[in-house]
Amino acid sequence: MKNRNVFFRPIVVALSGLLFGWLLLRATAGHAQTNPAPHYVIGFSQCTTADAWRQAMLAGMRKELSFYPNVTFRLKDARDDSRRQQQQIQEFLREKVDLLIVSANEAEPVTPVVEEAFNRGIPVVILDRRTTSKLYTAYVGGNNVEVGRAAGRYVGSLLGGRGNVLEIEGLAGASPAVDRHRGFAAALAAYPGVRLAARVQGDWKRPSVIRNLPAVLRAHPEVNLIFAHNDRMALGAYQVCKQLGLSHRVRVVGVDGLAGPQGGIQLVQDGVLTATLLYPPGGEEAIRTAMRILQHQPYDKENVLGTMVIDSTNVLTMKMQTEQLAAQQQDIERQQRLLQQQRDTYASQQTVLYGLAGALLLVAALGLLAWRALRANRRIARVLAGQNEEIRSQRNQIQELAERAQVETEAKLRFFTNFSHELRTPLTLILGPVEEMLTTGADFTAAQRHDLGLVRRNAQRLLRLVNQLMDFRKIDVGKMPVRATEGNLVAFVRDILDAFEKPARQKGVALRFLPAEPTVLLPFDVNILDKVFFNLLANALKFTPERGQITVSIQPVPSENSVRVSVEDTGRGISEQDRAHIFEWFYQGQQPGAQGSGMGLALALGLTRLHQGQLTFTSLSGQGSTFVVTLPLALPAAMLAPAGSVPAAPGLAQEELMAAPAAGAALAAPEAAEAGFATGEGRDALVLIIEDNEEVNAFLAQKLRPHFQVRTALDGSSGLRLAAELIPDLVVCDVMLPEISGLEVVAQLKGDWRTSHVPVVLLTARGAPEQQVEGVQAGADLYLTKPFNPTFLLESLRTLLSNRERQREHFRRELSVDTATVAPAQRVDQKFLADLTAIIEANLERAELSVEDVARSLGISRVQLYRKVKAVLGTSPTDFVQSIRLTKARQLLLDDALTIAEVAYRLGFNSPSYFSTSFKARYQISPSEYRALHTTPVE
């Protein structure tokens, strides 16, 4: 009996525990059922769901409702019919919803039924479109008057205070359309030069714009900006402008700023719209306000949502923020689905538990499972709450990062300005003594006077660039005032044009000046317009070829109360891809040509707008470009200089003009690609000819082209630049060159490790022995006197290339199989290899070491490094790095303390298997076999 009690006691204890757990679960479930969360029914009367903005509003509501499973949400779509909306609100009243949300189609027809709901005690939240009554519980939506004002201010600033605007309005009678027009017109009143040329009535939809706008644009060709009351109508306006060929001239601004592939943010990023005004749908805020009302929590009656302008300056930030929020919302929805699955699991288990109450053991087991599910639900709920808090924290972090980025940008610009100021002092100390030495008539040699002139011209050029940087900063912060005085614009432009007469004549370019009248009087700031016209003329002179023509014309336009100054050239024109960016700061473009600072045209545009003018251009590829400056004949009183002040004379120096590149629109040629580089003998070898006599230059090219690739230069500066860029296999150079002599060219080529390996042949008419010795001492590999035998020259070049190949083999043999280092020597090439090898060996453990990293450490470009290594060693930098790693591996494998894997990672290989494969491919033996072969086991 005692044994039987011992046997049953654990069973009884277990059953008692299970029964207690089941009763506890019952009590917990009963308590949860006696205190359920209150259930609410919210009715939403929407004017329409047919557009993306309304769908975004509804999506925001559903997103916020996902946090309230105890709310039933009912939607009725009026489909833009006010009578239907009245009937649907009456239906909500009969259904006795707990709260009503209304977004009215039209204000007046819906107001009575909204007042009836409010008077019945049903809370009413007005969303987006107001009614004509104050009988509502709360309002959520944007301030359409402020949206209109913001658009007006942006348009006035964008047009520089002058222009003609067309407004496309929303549905007649809708409060957003009325308020947006009122705010837009009020803001434009602050810009007298901006005229509202026409208004087009729309219905918030694109087809109405496509149908009505073409006739209005034909009647008002002066329109240069369109403001549409939403982005859908703005897209229609852009399509009409594109169809009429006006998209390059007429800018379009919309309202909504929705995210997504067809939203306003994407349209701005794609360049379809110039800007869009953010008008939040307010769905989330409407549900939050409704829940605060239903839960008897404090709330605001007026909940006005903010707005902002989204244009090219902030569209990427806005897009990234919206995409991150969308991803976070997807994560929340995924967690909620998991939570619902757990709830469903719990419900099904609870049902089974109650159905099997007669079987105590089974019920207890199911109760235990239900308890565990409950714990999981609570854990998931805590995780979800934490993620919600994290999302809120991330939103705040995004805002803080945006503000911090703005502060950092401002700090960089301040540093930029301060640095430009600091450059002025040393430039002044350079220019002062140089000017004094050149003007005092000191006894200098011709070469010394030439060098001093070179210093002065380049110092003046650098000073002008510094001044342009400072002007850029002044314009950016609005600290460059206009001080205009009455003057003759024709005489002013003629004085500037005279400074270009000599350089144009030297280049063989004809200058024409065609003023429509001998005198055009208007107030203008001499210093500002001097910079504008100087940059335009310098740019035209740069891109106008020999025997070309530059025409400057002045034409008053009394009907527009303005005057136009056009600078037309017969150059190559501006490419299609560069036209959209030609006025951007520091843009150098993709078109081949002389490289500039990328500031001139941007500065000219900023200064012209500062002067209340406009700068436009037209260009045809291969036919030239025309830049037109339009200036007003009258300026505001705030821009006029005090009476009696004398305008400063423009400070243009012909020396500066000769030295300075065309600032601004210089379209730099892209760096030559590696694929075009060739080394070795025969037809693939590249020969650079530097000869100032064009006939001799052409003769040499003609004789050598059947046997080599040939590039030519007419002076030493161009030759040195091409040599550094191309890294040729051989250079043929004349001794007597302008500015930089052939001997100086040789010395610089041999002193620069990028070109130190290149053989140089000097050609000269001076055949004295001491002159030949001088050439050889400068570093020339061969000295030939004119006239020379072309066949002898050709064979000499082939011999030099063969010697170069043998020298390349010599360098390769210096890379010993037992060590990865190259012994430094006096020769420049060996010094280069020593530096290159040292950099590679110092970074062997870096698996991510790239050719770009090595080139950056040497202070050169990736292409130059490739060409130098290819020319000296006959291999690529990547193969050279791999060779050093594998050579170093043979040393490390002799150390028994290191495993093969450790050797692989120490040498920067991503995996031991890749190391073994590379080692065996190089030495036809695996690392383990190599170690076994070269290490002696301990006896």
UniProtKB/TrEMBL annotation:
Alphabetically ordered keywords of this record: Coiled coil, DNA-binding, Membrane, Phosphoprotein, Transcription, Transcription regulation, Transmembrane, Transmembrane helix
Signal peptide (UniProt feature, chain positions): none
CDD domains referenced in this protein's UniProt entry, alphabetically: HisKA, PBP1_sensor_kinase-like, REC_OmpR
Domain Response regulatory: 686-801
Catalytic activity: ATP + protein L-histidine = ADP + protein N-phospho-L-histidine
Domain HTH araC/xylS-type residue range list: 834-933
Main enzyme class: transferase
Enzyme Commission number: 2.7.13.3
One Pfam family here: Peripla_BP_4
Domain Histidine kinase: 418-635
Modified residues annotated as 4-aspartylphosphate in this record: D734
InterPro entries associated with the record: CheY-like_superfamily, HATPase_C_sf, HATPase_dom, His_kinase_dom, HisK_dim/P_dom, HisK_dim/P_sf, Homeodomain-like_sf, HTH_AraC
Chain segments annotated as transmembrane: 352-374
SMART domains: HATPase_c (SM00387), HisKA (SM00388), HTH_ARAC (SM00342), REC (SM00448)
A molecular function GO annotation: DNA-binding transcription factor activity
Coiled coil stretches, renumbered: 318-345, 384-411
Cited PANTHER family: HYBRID SIGNAL TRANSDUCTION HISTIDINE KINASE C, TWO-COMPONENT HISTIDINE KINASE
Protein name in UniProt: histidine kinase
Biological source species: Hymenobacter cyanobacteriorum
